[in-house]
Amino acid sequence: MTPENPHRGLHRVIFVAAALCLVIQVIEGALFVPFVLVYLGFPQVGLQEICRELYNISYQDEDRKCRYPYPLFFRDFTPEPALQVSKEDVFGPVTPPRPHYHIPGWREMVSIVERRRAVEASQGHVGHE
Amino acid sequence: MSGMSSPTSVDAAASDDELLERAKAVQKKADRHLIIGSVLIGTMILGLFGLPFFIYGLWQLHKAEREGLPVRPFMMTFVGYLVLVDGAMNTLGAMLDVLANHSLIVRTFIMGTGLVFDAGYFWQYNTLLVGGASAPGEKAWEVANGVVLFPMRIVAAWGFLNMKRWGLQWMVVTCWMGVYAWVGYMWNLTTYSEMRFVDVLAPVWGWWLYNIWYVTPFIVIPFLYTINREMFTDD
User: Which of B68, B70, B105 has the CB atom closest to A47's CB atom?
Assistant: First the structure.
């Protein structure tokens, strides 16, 4: 027999807390999938129909279908909405726009700052934060 | 182990061997039940069928420990399998969204979940080239955790259950890595909260109610620091 661990009390607390978490994880893990599906009307309406309606809500597009089975090797590798009319006016850009920065060349910042100083000296203009 | 008991007569040695044999048999049987339970729990949907196996396996070890059989300690076994199952469930969750995002059930279930408590899994679902959740930063966390952290945690738990020293060390490492992942994930989630927790059924409280139970790797950290390290083999 191994000697009694002096932290037995702590281990007891950890066991109770962790066991409780595990049991709840198992219950919610098992019941959450059916809950969501039943909430959304399954089995009276099919998965593909639910999927379509969810897409329609998400993309605010009444005509969007839930393509299934989805081809494993899809010839067009552009993301799905590229096949649809853009709704960017509704929910904003999906990916950040290309910024088109002017990147200063080697030591070009010197001339930029000198130009700025000249402008500020002549106009007394103060920028904003 | 037999060196610890004092009598050296042939009789005592025989009964020691017998004891070890019995312990080995009990350990094997308990581990078999625990593994079946863990695999079932790891699937999530079949978890309720796995729980009885899991509890029965633990109970067998508890009983054997009470009888004084030299088996892997109850608490160590529980923590090892707990972390194993945590790694498995989290890997499943993350990788379904990364790899299986065009299967019908995943699309329907994940988008449905998104509407319930986290619109990061609803907004523009399957928009990006990789597919799945399009929430900013979400895919990076799924890949980092689902490919690195959670599999590492499973391996660590396995080493721990085999009572290897590296198993204990990597349990500590991957449980702390979990803290890192939670802090990073949470800040990402909160940064984009206007997109994720607005216009859903159960916004912030729903997310917490569902996810708070996954803190088990942090709960066991004090345990990992207070067990007898001498019980683990060096190899």
Answer: B105
Q: What is the pLDDT of residue B6?
A: 47
Interface of A with B in 6-65 (CB under 8 A): 7, 10-11, 14-15, 17-19, 21-30, 32-33, 36-37, 39-40, 47-48, 50-51, 54-55, 57-59
The residues near B219 (Cβ < 8 Å, ≥ 6 apart) are A14, A17, A18, A21
Provide the 10 A C-beta neighbour count for residue A1.
Answer: 9
Cross-chain CB nearest to A29 (options B47, B73, B75):
B47
Residue B142 has pLDDT above 70, yes or no: yes
What does the pLDDT average to over B112-140?
90
Please tell me the pTM assigned to this model.
0.84
Contacts of A14 in chain B (CB under 8 A): 75, 79, 219-220, 222-223
- Classify B200 in phi/psi space as left (phi over 0), alpha (psi -120 to 50) or beta: beta
- Residue spans of the domains in chain B: they are 1-71, 73-235
pLDDT, tens only, B170-207:
999 999 999 999 999 999 999 999 889 988 999 999 99
Contact status of A68 with chain B (Cβ, < 8 Å): yes
From A3-12, B115-124, B156-165, B174-183, the region with the lowest mean pLDDT: A3-12
Look-up: residue for tokens 């619109």? B119
Residue A51 near residue A36 (C-beta atoms within 8 A): no
Closest-CA distance of chain A to residue B15, Å: 15
Mean pLDDT of all residues in A30-35: 94
Q: What secondary structure letter does DSSP report for B124?
A: T
HSE of B105, CA atoms in CB hemisphere, 13 A: 5
Nearest to A66 by CA among A85, A42, A46, A37: A46
